[in-house]
Amino acid sequence: MIQQRANFDWMLKELAECVPNVHQVVVLSSDGLRIARYGGDPDAADRIAAACAGLQSLASAVATEIPDSDGTMNMVIIEVNGGFFYLMAAGKGAYLAVLADQFVDAGLVSHQMRDLVIRIGAHLTSPPRRNGQTV
Q1: CA distance 44 to 127
Q2: What is the domain extent for residue 65?
Q3: What is the pLDDT of residues 57-83, one digit of tens each?
């Protein structure tokens, strides 16, 4: 995955630049490691990736309480004072996160995230790790 990080950056830039008011885009593994980012600083992207690991786990746990759900988290949207946070499944073991301000077109963000995942979802995978090593 590390070797592909630079290849993702331009795609993330495209998403951020075609949707006004998007401030940061992060691709992360299910265990909370940053794979790629656009916008913001690297430390913020690392914190977002770590927080997303817990959020996707929580969403999946809640999803199992919904009748006929297989527990798979597809998308989480959080609205806070001043903006929005989006988290979308983006491939096996990988997620796409977007932070935007309060003036973002929420539908456009979701649409562009889905388009990006469809275009490159097969490449947005993160193999499982044990003891810090890819298995």
Answers
A1: 23
A2: 2-134
A3: 899 889 889 999 888 888 999 999 999
Q: How many whole angstroms from its chain centre is CA 19? A: 16
Q: What is the pLDDT of residues 30-65, one digit of tens each?
A: 889 998 899 988 999 999 999 998 998 899 889 889
State the pLDDT at residue 25.
95
**Structure token digits, residue 31:** 């265990």
Residue 122 carries which DSSP code? G
CATH number of the domain within which 114 lies: 3.30.450.30
Based on the structure, what is the number of domains in the chain? 1
Task: Please state, as a whole number, how many other Cβ atoms lie within 10 Å of the Cβ of residue 29.
Answer: 22
Contacts of 56 (CB under 8 A, 6+ apart): 30, 73, 76, 87, 89, 95
C-alpha–C-alpha distance, residues 28 and 36, integer Å = 7
Phi-psi region at 71: left, alpha or beta (left = phi > 0; alpha = psi -120 to 50): left
- Work out the average pLDDT over 88-103: 92
Q: What pTM was computed for the model?
A: 0.83
What tokens were used for 108? 């456009």
